Structure formats: C-alpha cells, structure tokens
Amino acid sequence: MPIRNLSKIFTPTSIAIIGASNRAGSVGQRVLQNLIEGQFQGELYPVNAKHSELAGHRCFPSLSELPLATGAVVDLAVICTPAATVAEVVRQCGEAGILGVVILSAGFREIGLDGERIEAEIRTSAKRFEGMRILGPNSLGLMSPYHGLNASFAADGVTPGRVAFISQSGALCASVLDWAAKEGIGFSHFVSVGNMLDIGVADLIDYFASDRWTDSIILYVESISHARQFMSAARAFTRSKPIIVYKAGRFDASEKAAATHTGAMIGLDNAYEAALTRAGAVRVWELADLFDCAELLAGQEAPAGPRLAIVTNAGGPGVMATDALLQRKGTLAELSDASIQKLDGLLPEAWSHGNPIDVLSDADADRFGEAVAIALADKNVDGVLVILSPQIWTQPLETADAVIKAANRSRKPVLTAWMGGTRVQAGIEHFSQAGVPSYATPEKAVASFMYLVQYARNRSMLYETPRSVPLGFRIDRDRLRTIFRESVTVQNGHRDGNEILSESDSKALLEAYDIPVCPTVVAGTKEAAMEIAQLIGYPVVMKICSPSIVHKSDVGGVALNLIDRDSVARAFDSIVAKAKQKRPDAVIDGVTVQPMTVAPWGRELFVGAKRGPVFGSVLMVGLGGTATELLWDRTFELPPLSERLARRMLESLRAWPLLGAYRGRDPVDLDQLVEVLMRISYLVADAPEILELDINPLLATPTEVVALDARIVLQRAAVLNPPAPYSHLAICPYPTQFTHESQLGDGTPVLMRVIQPEDEPMWCELISGCSMESIQMRFRYMFRNTTHEMASRFCFNDYDREIAIVAEVNENGRKAIAGVGRLVADVDHQEVEFAVLVGDAWQGRGLGSELMDYCLKISEQWRVQKIVAEIAPQNRRMLEMFSHRGFTLNRSIAADVVVATKRL
Questions:
Q1: Which SS3 state, helix, strand or coil, does residue 236 take?
Q2: What's the domain range around 778?
Q3: Where is the ATP-grasp domain (predicted)?
C-alpha cells in the first residue's frame, strides 16, 4: 500500500517554487535551475512577488494567483524563503490544496530555542490540513532521476541507478554527490531529510520498498526518532532488499557513571548496533564501504555461511586474505576430500593441497577457471575469493572471463581481487560488465564478503522459526506491581527520583518470573547477620548492602565461605568498616547473607538490561564475575527474546566454547540457560518501570541456572504513572491480549490467538489438508507444497503491522490449526486488508464467521478507517458473510475478484 501522499513529493506533476529567484547563489535560483536542467516534465510555477518572469517561466506573486483549472491543485511546493516566513507559507500551501511540501530553508531547531518555536508554528499550521506531508526543514532537497526531478539546491545532479540514498546530513549529501559524479554512481532517489519535522527515515524506507527502481537503500544516520516505526519499516524492507547503514557518532562523551554495571556498559551505540542487526540491516564502519556494499548486497546471492575458499596464483596475497578473513571472524573453508582429489588431478604437484588454493604463478585462464568451479561445487564452501597477481605468464583478461563463466554456473557469491594497474584493467572492466565484484586488494574483498555474511545472518533471523520452548510459566504481575509500589514509598533518607532496589527486592522481582535465585536476607546488625546465617546454614556469603555502592568487591564488601558465627561476626565488622572508609558518602543498610554456592563446574555470566532514550530497553549478556568489565566480552539484543535470539546471543560471545564440554567439564544446561534469558527478557518487556537491571553472576551449571546477585533500578515516575504497555520497546512483543477462548456452534472449544513463528509446522499441516480449490480461493494462485520461506512469511509477523489469528483446536490429544484470519494494515494504519482460510475439514461449522468477527473486533481496536478484502466470485458462502456484516461488494474491478470494503 502506498505511503500517504509521499507520491506528491517524489512523483509530482506540478511544482511551485516559493521564493524562486534570479540572484546568483541563492537557494531559490539554484532550485529553479536544477528543476529545469533536470528536465522535469510537469508544470513549474515560480512564486515571488518581486518578479514577473524567471528563467523563461512566468512568475506569480502568490499561490492564490496560480492559473490553475477549476478543481486543479499543485502537487508539490518547494519552500526557499527565510525561516521566519515558513509557517505562514505552509498555511498558504494548505489553503491552496498542496499536500506535498519540501522546506529547504535553514534556521530552525538547529539554531536553538527560536528555531524550535518556528518549527512548532509550522507543525501547528500543517495540522490544519489533513494529509499534508513535509520533507525538512533544513533539507538539501531530493532527487528522483527516473522522474526527471531535482528539487534541491545541490551543485551536482545524479544519474539514474538502483540505490536510494537517505541522509540526515546535508553537508555529507553535497560531498557524496560530488564523489558519485566522479565515480559514475547512480541513484534511484537521493534524499536529504533535514530536521524530519514530519517525514522520517521510516516513511522513506516504506515508500522505497514498493519503488520499482530501488534495489537497496543506503542510510546515513546520526540519530533515529520513532524507533518503533523505524524497526517495522526496516524489517519489512530487508526481507527482500538490503539496507546499508553508516551510523555517525559512535561514542557518547556524555555517558556518566550509572547505578549498575549495566548502566555503565550499555552505551547508546550498543543499542543502535542491536537494533540495526535485529532490523536485518548491514552496518558499515567506513564511509568508503557504503556504495561498494550496496552494489554487492543488491547484486549477489547471500552466502549460506562464513566459509570462504580462496583461489590465488600467489602465496602472499592468499595469506593476506586469510589473515583478513580470520580477523573478521570469517572461516577458511575446509575443502572436501573429493575437491582435493579433483584439484590434485588439475593442478601441478607443487600446489598448496589445501585452502587457500594456490594454482601457482604459471596458471593460465583455464586452470584458474576450473579451480574456481571445483571450489564452488564443494558443499563446505559458502563463497569464493579469486586473487590474481600479474606474473609473466598471467592472462588477466582471459582469466577474468574464465572466472565469470564459472561464477555464472553457481549461486554462491564470487568476489575477485585483480591486483595491479594497467595490466589488469581490462579484466576488471569485464567483471564490472558481468556483475562480478572486483576489488583492488584481498583485504577489501574479504571485508565485502563478510558484509555479505552479516546480511545473510541478519536476514535469516527475519525468517527464523524458533525451536519450541514450552515456557508456559506463571507470571505474577500482581506481585511485580506490589514490589514496585512498596519501593517508592520507602523513606530511608536516600531514595530519590530513581529507586535502587535492595538485592532481596531485586531477586523478588526475578522470582515473580520464575527466574531461579539464590535466597538473600538483609541484616542490619551483626547480631541479625549471625542469626540469619544460623538459619540459612553454613557456609554463607556476606555482602555489603548499600544502594550507593555498585562494585561491592572494590570496597572490600564481599566475604565468602563463612563457616560459623565467629567468622560471620568478624566479616560483618570488616565489611562495614571498609565500606565506610572507602565510601564515606554511602548509605549503609547493613549486609546481605545468602548460602555459599559451591559449583566447580559452573560458569559465571552477566545479564543486564537498560532502558535507553532511542530504542528503549536493551538486553546484554556477557562473561560474568569480577572481571566482566575488563574482558569486555558481551553482546546486545532488543527484547523480547525468542529461543533462537537467546541462543544467538550466547553463540556470539567469545566465551561460547566455555559453555560446552571442555577439559573434563560437563556442558552447562543450555536449554535452561536459554529459558532463563527469555524469562528475563519478558520481565524487562513487561516492566517499563525498570531503568537498569544487573544479574552478576548468573551461575550456569550442568544441572541448574541461578542468579547469585541482582540489582534493579526503578523509575519512580513510571511506577506511580505506568506508561502504555510495551511503549518502552522498539519491537512489539507477542500480543497476548488477543488470546480468546471460544467455541463453535456444535460446542467444539477453539482457542483464538495470534500466530507465532513456532506455529510453522501446524500452519504447513493446515495448508497440506486444504484442497486446490480452497488454496486458489485464499491465495489466488495454485501451489502444492509449502516452503520454509513461504511459511515463515505467514508465521513470522511484525505485530505492529500484521496480525494473523489462528483457531487452535485439539485433535485426538494434539494441537492443530483449523483456520487463520489475517489482518495486514498499511503503514499509516488507515486501511487494513483482511483474508481468511478455513481448513477443508472444518468448513461449514461456523469457524469462518468466528474468525471474521474476531478480526473485525481487532480492526476496531487498531482504529483503522477501512477494511478491504478480495474474494473469488465463486466463493458464494464468503460473499454472503461479508454482505451480512455490512461490507460493500464491488464486482466491476476485475472479472476474477470481488472487492469487499467496509468503513469503520
């Protein structure tokens, strides 16, 4: 579905240039010149009361005096006037019926409070006119070369290409345009978003998703607003096309000491990294990589994995490529025995007999080509890098053609590095013509291959079907809220806007989500500590209890393996005295006492969460214990976690091998560890009140996973006035609120709930049990077998945009899906498409009506304005259902479809 009124901006048929001028160097003069030189085919209306003619076009004193036919309006207004005038000009545009506005003027929020006030006035003016869309202000403008549109004041235009470029920096746009003109790089669209008063990055991603000229998007971003919309748009786009992102401002100099380890360890850039990965985007670290990466990802098949084979005629470059690959965490492919035998028959005795495949310096084109073909055919190889170093016998052009021939016979990516100058240039040009990427150095080629691997990994998560983990756990939300309320009423003299919970209260929150904890009791006096230790049983651990002290070990605040009353008494005096000496400012509540956990086979992990300003809550997992901040082995993810996401976090740690069996140690209970991580993510997702959370260490053993220490920081304001559910998350979690128990007319119980990725097997069973006629009526095309990609498309939904309600039934003791009703909203949530499928065995029992009525109820909760459905003309039963519910049936659009619509 098209993005509301963005076509007025990107494909206008008429443009008014407000503030057009003939003054050399002015914005108004440059915009008019660019529109004319860009050969815009529509009507141009310069608007400036000081001129009657500009650049051969009649100039008009105001918008109200444009010579438009009755009922006609201008599509796009480009505003070039001073900032102080813009709000009034926007009002005039709205009164003239102009719904597309580009504001090039500067002098808004970027200059301070006066500019913010003007932006507020513009926003107020625009709200009066429904459907008005604004790009900018403080924008360089936009270009759409396939439409002859250059509505910018840039010094350079662009040639048509297949990459859409979106930038938050106008200055960078100018540099990129100059560089692109020199390199001959083209664009489908080129957009400077400016201050994003209205149109943001997410809007543009959604618009370009349906643009036939755009194969990929390059995004230069300094900050992201409306994170939820960005994540939805990016995840939808990257299912089929790549997004390449350069994020400026990696280091936040303003990061201050926080109340937890996590608060200090999760920076803003970590949140961006987690979000971009979860969105399926590829992040590059050098501006020079942007365009190479965009062309590569749009033109090459994504590899199945990181295993690279290297074919070279020189040992040195092969070693260089291997070093670069291993440094970037790639894998040097291990060639199969069959491939080695084939290469033995092809190559001289002195070849390397392994990977890299050194075909030797005297290799001709045929030897190169056949070696590449063997490598590509190897099941252990995910991609091939071919390196040519010009020798006396080398044939750069002929070898390039041989490599191209081999590459064309395989779906695996082939990258090349033709090293040298004029001797290899002809071969490089042949690669360019054939769409085979070529690089000046092996390191550059390896970097590009790893970007391909990154894209494949990130994209696979969008289609991943998690292994079913039977959580089904009790969530004591009432207990959660009770702890929150009690925490903000405590008056110990050290509570402020953020409530730092005690270790025992923090663990109580974890227990509410069935996260195993080591029981902890607070002792305010030495005598109390001795009594508690006696009750718990020796040995015990004692730790300082203070909301002000994050790193207990740093102040001597931890005593281990206390075996009797005397050792507890001595430890109490020592811990309190050391804490007061090293932190005289700290409020000391006493100590905590807990059982001493002896686990020689255990591994200590660190799990944390922090609510940030852009993407909301972010989770972190890393190697735990006292050295966690020194080793810096950690990974980040956005909640909520699926089983696969939790495993992926663990797998990405350098410490991952330590969780398995090694040196006689049994592996940890990985399933239980994954489940605990998922439970923690549910806690964070359910509780926007949580600002920071630490669990360090989380002890994982072969038999159990238990939180030995925990610290949680709450936001007082959020506890007293809880925000909307899940508003603190960048990704909408599974909508449990749409779970509903019902029954059919014959009494058969049915569970109505939202589909989830784990439903893929049951969804496939539903489809396999449908007749060809049922499939044709639902999908409007015939197919016999489902694929994983097809099934995951229907089972893995962005719940902000699409909801499928499954009717789950019990058939002979096993669960099954009897039918599915699906709602797909447009990105503006103005309109929703509805479709329903009922399995053949369940037809005629009222299930279709049940699904339709429930989906209509959800549509009302979504506050959409219109519901649309397409029905086969021969499906009389379904047509009657729509008609009975007040839908209007339109049979005139096409012979093979009836369109049903209903306004809410």
A1: helix
A2: 736-903
A3: 507-543
pLDDT at 488 (0 to 100) = 63
Sequence-separated (6 or more) residues with CB below 8 Å from residue 325: 308, 310, 331, 332, 446, 449, 450
**Which residues, 6+ apart, have CB-to-CB distance to 111 below 8 Å?**
none
Whole-structure pTM value: 0.87
Backbone angles phi, psi at 854, to 5 degrees: -70, -40
Which two three-digit tokens encode residue 668? 């940890």
Indicate the pLDDT class of residue 491, thresholds 50, 70 and 90: very low
Record the tokens describing residue 11, joined without a space: 């494909």
The CATH number of the domain where 844 resides is what? 3.40.630.30
378 and 480 fall within a common domain: no
The answer to whether the CB of 158 falls within 8 A of the CB of 147 is no
Q: Tell whether 357 is covered by a domain.
A: yes
Which residue from 733, 770, 773 is spatially nearest to 754, judged by alpha carbons? 733
Q: What tokens were used for 119?
A: 């932006």
Same domain, 446 and 317: yes
| Residue 247 maps to a domain | no
Element (H, E) at 684: helix 670-686
**Residue 257 pLDDT more than 50?**
no
Coil, helix or strand at residue 152: strand
Shared domain check, 493 and 476: yes
Lowest mean pLDDT across 36-40, 196-200, 595-599, 665-669:
595-599
Angle at 541 between CA 536 and CA 544, to 5 degrees: 115
How does strand 331-332 pair with strand 357-358? unpaired
Query: What integer pLDDT is reported at residue 128 of this predicted model?
Result: 93
More confident residue, 726 or 191: 191
How much is the pLDDT for 253?
47
Q: How far is CA 510 from CA 387, 487, 551, in A?
A: 55, 15, 21
Domain termination residue (choose one: 596, 627, 646): 596
Name the pLDDT band for 493 (thresholds 50, 70, 90).
very low
For residues 233 and 703, what is the distance between their CA atoms, to the nearest angstrom? Answer: 42
71-98 mean pLDDT: 95
Across 39-158, the runs of DSSP E, i.e. the strands, are 43-47, 53-54, 57-58, 76-79, 100-103, 133-135, 141-144, 149-152
Q: Are the beta carbons of 522 and 568 closer than 8 angstroms?
A: no
Distance CA 403, CA 412 (A): 13
Q: Are 247 and 283 in contact (CB under 8 A)?
A: yes
In 878-900, which positions are buried (b, 16+ CB within 10 angstroms) versus exposed (e)?
Answer: bbebbeeeebeeeeeeeeeebbb
Residue 302 is part of a domain; what is its CATH number? 3.40.50.261
Residues 6+ apart with CB under 8 A from 803: 735, 738, 754, 797, 822, 823, 858
Q: How far apart are CA 575 and CA 812, in angstroms?
A: 62
Residue-wise burial string across 218-232, b where 16 or more C-beta atoms lie within 10 A, e elsewhere: bbbbeebebbbbbbb
Whether 850 is covered by a domain: the verdict is yes
| Rounded Cα distance, 21 and 26, in Å | 7
Instruction: Tell me whether residue 784 is in a domain.
Output: yes
Least confident of 189-193, 708-712, 847-851: 708-712
Do 677 and 801 share a domain, yes or no?
A: no
Are 291 and 185 contacting, i.e. CB atoms less than 8 angstroms apart? yes
Considering the domain architecture, whether residues 125 and 208 belong to the same structural domain is answered as yes
Is the same domain home to 896 and 821? yes
**Identity of the residue numbered 58:** R
- Count how many domains the chain has: 5
Mean pLDDT of 437-463: 91
Do 103 and 133 reside in the same domain of the chain?
yes
Instruction: Tell whether 610 and 565 lie within a shared domain.
Output: no
**pLDDT value of residue 470:** 47
Q: Which of 438, 462, 486 is the last residue of a domain?
A: 462
Q: What is the mean pLDDT of the chain?
A: 89
Q: How far is CA 380 from CA 307, 308, 346, 372, 856, in A?
A: 7, 9, 19, 14, 50
Cα separation, 367 vs 373, whole angstroms: 10
